[in-house]
Amino acid sequence: MIKVGIVGGTGYTGVELLRLLATHPMVEVCAVTSRAEKGLRVDSVYPSLRGFNDLCFVEPSIDQLVGCDLVFFATPNATAMHMAVELLDKGVKLIDLSADFRLKDVAVWEQWYGAKHVCAELLEQAVYGLPETNRELIKTANLVANPGCYPTATQLGFLPLIKANVIDSSLLIADAKSGVSGAGRSASVVGLMSESGESFKAYGVPGHRHLPEITQQLTSVSSTPVSLTFTPHLVPMIRGIHATLYAPLLDQGVDLQALFETYYADEPFVDVLPAGAHPDTGDVRGTNRCQIAVHRPQGGNMVTVLSVIDNLVKGASGQALHNMNIMFGFDETAGLNQVGFYP
Amino acid sequence: MIKVGIVGGTGYTGVELLRLLATHPMVEVCAVTSRAEKGLRVDSVYPSLRGFNDLCFVEPSIDQLVGCDLVFFATPNATAMHMAVELLDKGVKLIDLSADFRLKDVAVWEQWYGAKHVCAELLEQAVYGLPETNRELIKTANLVANPGCYPTATQLGFLPLIKANVIDSSLLIADAKSGVSGAGRSASVVGLMSESGESFKAYGVPGHRHLPEITQQLTSVSSTPVSLTFTPHLVPMIRGIHATLYAPLLDQGVDLQALFETYYADEPFVDVLPAGAHPDTGDVRGTNRCQIAVHRPQGGNMVTVLSVIDNLVKGASGQALHNMNIMFGFDETAGLNQVGFYP
Amino acid sequence: MIKVGIVGGTGYTGVELLRLLATHPMVEVCAVTSRAEKGLRVDSVYPSLRGFNDLCFVEPSIDQLVGCDLVFFATPNATAMHMAVELLDKGVKLIDLSADFRLKDVAVWEQWYGAKHVCAELLEQAVYGLPETNRELIKTANLVANPGCYPTATQLGFLPLIKANVIDSSLLIADAKSGVSGAGRSASVVGLMSESGESFKAYGVPGHRHLPEITQQLTSVSSTPVSLTFTPHLVPMIRGIHATLYAPLLDQGVDLQALFETYYADEPFVDVLPAGAHPDTGDVRGTNRCQIAVHRPQGGNMVTVLSVIDNLVKGASGQALHNMNIMFGFDETAGLNQVGFYP
Amino acid sequence: MIKVGIVGGTGYTGVELLRLLATHPMVEVCAVTSRAEKGLRVDSVYPSLRGFNDLCFVEPSIDQLVGCDLVFFATPNATAMHMAVELLDKGVKLIDLSADFRLKDVAVWEQWYGAKHVCAELLEQAVYGLPETNRELIKTANLVANPGCYPTATQLGFLPLIKANVIDSSLLIADAKSGVSGAGRSASVVGLMSESGESFKAYGVPGHRHLPEITQQLTSVSSTPVSLTFTPHLVPMIRGIHATLYAPLLDQGVDLQALFETYYADEPFVDVLPAGAHPDTGDVRGTNRCQIAVHRPQGGNMVTVLSVIDNLVKGASGQALHNMNIMFGFDETAGLNQVGFYP
User: Fold this and answer.
1) Which tens digit of pLDDT belongs to each residue from B303-328?
2) With an 8 Å Cβ cutoff, are B191 and D193 in contact?
3) How high is the pLDDT of residue C268?
4) Residues C200, B276: C-beta atoms closer than 8 Å
5) Are residues A43 and A115 in the same domain?
6) What does the alpha-carbon distance between residue B117 and residue A80 come to, in Å, rounded to a whole number?
7) Which residues between 48 and 107 in chain A have a beta carbon less than 8 angstroms from any beta carbon of chain D?
């Protein structure tokens, strides 16, 4: 049994951590912080947790967290960086679900996140927590930067193609669609159901923070320069990301289906669907699974990859648990064996 | 370990049984039947089950089911009754999620369900499977009639009041609202998202099949005649039932909150919320839990009870598992410890 | 042609006024105010209005509005009362879509709205703008209090029964359900689609501001004391209210269908559906129409009335236009002839 | 005044024609056909039309339609072609909202629509009814093939770029998303809200019937060969199409914003949004308007066009009215001046 703390327990990724950890056999949640809800019972704010959690929210402070083996940061960007150094110094391992440690280039981070990074020296040691690419590094990491939701769905779709060097990586397109929970649990007008229900739109077309993250990661595994056009869209549903990925095919002879199946043969959370399939976000709802299909429409020169995840699980809290399992030597699937929540 | 079969594996209650049973430690699913999908892998029809179930659908027949300890009927009404006698004779226990064995009066059943009942002799021995009222009978039952979804939410809300004899049972109102999955997984126009999305309406106001079921059950525990006005409505969401219940209060001195908390103190799946609460179907989504709040608006003479369940879990497949657990002496909560799926 | 101003042009009732007025042949919109958006083009905030409105938002001030024949207040409660006296003095007619002038008893208003009323002297002269009861008074009114959304749907359902004195008005129940646009266009957590989508709950069961409004109005037409239990619920859709109304029937011989059809025979915006019907909010979406059905389930002693409106039209901005048409002698249906927006 | 008939009055495009025609000053609807609903009042099937239409459905037959000046076919594919020759011979003009006359190459049509075309000789004279490209031909046409919904949104987005010859037309991508009403009003499982709500998926990736239509039309205006990858997706909303279009930019110096604004300067139903905008399907809901934005992300070599329409209006029935207005010399915007239905 390990002791874990959650900083930022009132956002969706925080609550989702609590949902998943409630079924994990090796974890005791010792502290859940919230400045706004300090003193309140967690299950008075989230009645879905009644009977599973009898903690009260505590002030986020080093004292509250120093007894933990692991702390998850489920906080807004530019928050974790303020506590990371001190917690790491005291021997606490960290998994940051925000973006503070995802980018290696501090100038790029500061440009996209509009803040001064207060511990840029940690960027080098932080391990990007996509288990499908970084499993070995995660095993010994003290600081894991949990990937963004769009970057997870996008990378998993492009990786087999880029590693096999069969596409033109200078003309990549990621047309990605997310449910509204991706915007978090903060009061807003644009997130109102009256605004986001029964409508569909793109956003951030001129530039989105997940673009440099995806580009950095794909570049790190590509033998040729990567150029990506990334278009996020908002879907009138709560959970789910669907990334539709396009790349010109260079190698006309490659068996794309076999390529994907082989690449992910040993991955517990990537499920390559049979040829011709169209994955549905509804089939992975509530799970840590990415379902992928690869197509070559009309046998032409464009590869189309369809990649779906639950943005709050594989795109956030579930992947964080996966990273925890790897860091502490647990069964990788512990706490993550949910069947998709359909219908 | 027991062996179970599921007749009617392609409806929502069938799939939900498979989802819940996948986490049950004492059950092996041996047969899933579907006439239409015979021969197909279950997980090819339901990709959410990939990795959890490698069965193929088989023809519904006595031969396929006779080796089971228990068979669930997740079939349309007037189906289970055609196989029940033979399976019971061969020593197979049955839990029928349809309405074939819920009503004791065969004439009433035939009037509301528009068919001739082919084994009316079983109605007497069939046990109505609401554990909160019939736990002892369920323990030794061979044939359990799993309650309807509306009747579950409605009975759990009225029971403490009726048993305590503090309301006028001749003026009961159940204004109930259900998500669209209650209508099942059959092709229809009214169930299209274009029809049922972004709209709200009542249906069955002149009479609904669940009315005689609720009246029969409430009458069986009431010391005074029961008269109920029942209005079902369709909510543009997938899962969830919210029953808003009204009854004139006879005993002005009763402590309603204490009454409810005491009544359900030992029930694992009924959760009485604190005074003043408004239960939300979203907090019990995916769980076998009923959350209830009792109000006396403006301290007046009307009691208002708010009772929410997930229609596919506590209102169907979860309650069926609960019944199974009781029938076979398993831990009552086995396979049913899900945290509410929020958001 | 009359000149109208809209105070509070960035809420949903304000935008809906602009949508409806765009098709009105006798109205020129001269000023749309918004403190927050001052100086911005209205159609830059609401691209749906591009081509229909070239105004910019102006500061809400007497100067901006004094040239108008009529000003609509589409503001939060406790706002209109601060400008009403001065505008009326200058000869501007007012229709207030908020609650400032709906209650006749200032003490009751102050209790429910939590503010000091600054012009209680106007409450007496303010006309409650439900045309179906107050048409004659509206014709000569200078200050119209536009009814609340729930009160509109509820009153229209109960009125024929109460006026005919055929029900027990001491046991009225209004179980009402509203789409989320009723909560307005303000940043909030509870209004997020992640919170209000795919879930259903009651709110305000201990007491809701629309209760005293409904009670006041029903009492004013009833020959016996009125006692109402009112339960509002939130539906995961954007527009629409469905009121399900219950009352014990006193007169067993009354022809309810004929009663309703006769009562509303001359009303352009109340449509009594054929016997046995279930009105759907989707059929009145976007219109100023109330569709009503009256039932007597199983021929028993309870009347069930189903009443649906679009909360932003008949429940707010459409009714305000109707009042304007009456006040200025226009055709009552001018600007309000929309066909229901289905699907 | 002209007399029009509607064949197939019970589908969504049929009902939408009735909604729009109800406000058209120059049209009398004389016949609405439905084999299934023959004899029923139209407004008993569609209560939203109560008060606007007192017709009964009639059998679809030449006799019923021969007195019309114009007949709309709002029928499934491969239906209109069976009545077209006879009606044209009798001097009735036709607008077919299905696909029977959209493709010029009968072999291609028969391949994609899986039927033998019974009047291929009409394909040559049929005019493809996209007013923005074919206005002059439409004026004198007797047979108009109303464009598909996806093809409308896609063509309007690509046209300015292709005509200006500034993109590489061999690498076009149309990632398109549609609300569920696009699938029509037929009983189905996939269209159930339980299936299509709260989920998102692509479909038809290997090939969709709208691909040859789009390719044919873009090819007809392009000076270079057109190759398009087209991916349709299903959005959990009722109305709306969002086409996200990608093309490599050949001419780095072109002012894209000016190009689009100039191209559509005189078009009443194409609205080019200001630079940097993200059109929202919610802003064109219920209208015949296409809102478009053009982007060049990070100033790179990929053009991204965002194009939104209401699939039932500009993508079907509204465009059909527009064609009618052009054919009969009416004001092009007659019956089509709706403000976007927001929220």
Assistant:
1) 999 999 999 999 999 999 999 999 99
2) yes
3) 98
4) no
5) yes
6) 66
7) none
| Residue C224 contacts A where some CB pair is shorter than 8 Å | no
Q: How far is D62 from chain C (nearest CA, A)?
A: 29
B216 and B111, same domain (yes or no): no
Q: What is the pLDDT of residues D255-265, one digit of tens each?
A: 999 999 999 99
> Same domain for A204 and A264?
yes
Q: What pLDDT sits at residue A254?
A: 97
Q: Are residues C188 and C301 in the same domain?
A: yes
- Contact between B130 and B268 under an 8 Å Cβ cutoff? The reply is no
Query: Do the beta carbons of residue A124 and residue A134 sit within 8 Å?
Result: no
Task: Find the DSSP H helices in A9-125.
Answer: 12-21, 42-45, 62-65, 81-89, 106-113
Whether residue A200 and residue D279 make contact (CB cut-off 8 A), yes or no, is: no
Please report residues of C whose CB lies closer than 8 A to that of B203: 278
Residue D113: give its domain's CATH number: 3.40.50.720
Same domain for B62 and B188, yes or no, is: no
Q: Average pLDDT, stretch C197-207?
A: 97
Last residue of one domain, picked from the residues B58, B92, B125 = B125
Residues C112 and C154 in one domain: no
B185/D194 touch (CB, cutoff 8 Å), yes or no: yes
* Residue D195 buriedness (CB in 10 A; 0-12 / 13-18 / 19+): buried
Six-digit token string for D170: 């061999």
Asked whether the beta carbons of residue A231 and residue D308 sit closer than 8 angstroms, the reply is no
User: ipTM score of the complex?
Assistant: 0.97
Regions in chain A scoring below 50 on pLDDT: none
Alpha-carbon distance of D170 to A161, in angstroms, equals 22
Query: Is A318 a domain residue?
Result: no
User: Are B168 and B302 in a shared domain?
Assistant: yes
Residue D133 within a domain? no
User: In terms of CA atoms, which chain A residue is nearest residue D285?
Assistant: A199
The nearest CA of chain D is from the CA of B198 a distance in Å of 8
Tell whether C169 lies on the interface with B, counting CB pairs under 8 A: no
Could you tell me if D243 and D291 are in contact, meaning their C-beta atoms sit under 8 angstroms apart?
no
Q: Which of B70, B93, B125 is the last residue of a domain?
A: B125
Q: Taking CB atoms and an 8 Å cutoff, what residues of chain A touch C194? A: 12, 180-181, 183, 185, 191, 238
Q: What is the pLDDT of residues D310-342, one digit of tens each?
A: 999 999 999 999 999 999 999 999 999 999 999
Q: Which residues of B are catalytic?
A: 149
Same domain membership, residue B85 and residue B20: yes
Half-sphere exposure of B73 (CA within 13 A, CB side): 29
Active site residues of D: 149
pTM (global) more than 0.95: yes
Q: Which residue of C has its CA nearest to D289?
A: C48
Q: Which of C185, C189, C194 to mutate to test the interface with A (most CBs of A within 10 A)?
A: C194
Q: Residues of C numbered 237-296 whose beta carbons fall under 8 angstroms of chain A's beta carbons: which are they?
A: 237-238
Q: Is C341 a domain residue?
A: no
C337 touches C26 (CB < 8 A): no
Closest CA to C187 of A203, A191, A237: A191
A196 touches chain C (CB under 8 A): yes
To the nearest whole angstrom, how far is the Cα of B219 from the nearest Cα of chain C?
A: 18
pLDDT 10s digits, D262-304: 999 999 999 999 999 999 999 999 999 999 999 999 999 999 9
- When divided into structural domains, chain C yields a total of 2
Q: What range does the domain containing C106 cover?
A: 2-125
User: CA dist B90 to B65, B71, B80, D101, Å?
Assistant: 10, 12, 15, 63
| B198, two tokens | 């972004």
Percent of chain C with pLDDT over 70: 100
Q: What is the CATH number of the domain that holds A184?
A: 3.30.360.10
Q: Which residues have CB under 8 Å from D318's CB, separation 6+?
A: D16, D20, D269, D287, D288, D310, D312, D336
Quick check: is D328 in a domain?
no
Residue of B nearest to D238 (CA): B194
How confident is the prediction along chain D (343 residues), in pLDDT tens digits per residue? 999 999 999 999 999 999 999 999 999 999 999 999 999 999 999 999 999 999 999 999 999 999 999 999 999 999 999 999 999 999 999 999 999 999 999 999 999 999 999 999 999 999 999 999 999 999 999 999 999 999 999 999 999 999 999 999 999 999 999 999 999 999 999 999 999 999 999 999 999 999 999 999 999 999 999 999 999 999 999 999 999 999 999 999 999 999 999 999 999 999 999 999 999 999 999 999 999 999 999 999 999 999 999 999 999 999 999 999 999 999 999 999 999 999 9
